[in-house]
Request: fold
Amino acid sequence: MKTIGMIGGLSWHSSLQMYEYINSYIADALGEYNCARMVLANVNLQEVFITRKDEQEQVLLEGARQLEAAGCDFYIICSNTMHKYASFLQSHIKTPLLHIADATADAILKKGIDRIGLMGTRITMEEDFYRDRLEKKGLQVLIPSEEERALIDKVLYEETGFGIVKETSSAAFYKIAQGLVTRGAEGVILGCTEIGLLIQQEHTEIPLFDTTIIHGETAAKMAIEN
Reply:
């Protein structure tokens, strides 16, 4: 079994979910007492928020170097937004990175979908590092309105980032997802590792692609494949 490296703490709530998804998948796939071989480099999200961009890169690079020193076969970043620094990390670390947008795009394309809605932090929805990656895979990406993007961002940073889940926010997220479908999206990417705390597939007919689940299960499959 390959050893998975995790850059976590971005936030720790979503890292906890990722840990559970990976180990649950491997336990189900292999049976008995099997679980993942894994190394966690848990960075301090507070340090990321209070530093300049170049310093933010260094916080993540320190975590990636810990994983490389530990001999991980590949690693993941337990955050959609922090994939903003994926190219920087790949230029400094030899250990392969399993990119969350690649894993998500592959899962969507397997469903025969090519027009997808994207919900996430403003950075994830508005900047090129994530959307371009999806579009290069052949997806057409729709994002919510300016007002809706502001609301999503506020909830993710001021509520779910602290583990707070409000029914009013959950209802608003379902409404935004439905709006994307009305505009032509065939499904919606939950493009923040914490959106899954607010909306789940069992409560909607809209095809949802939870990046935390997809990323975790893809990592687990890579770890146990021959």
Q: What stands out?
A: The two ends are 8 Å apart (CA to CA). DSSP finds ten helices and seven strands in the chain. The longest strand covers residues 3-8.
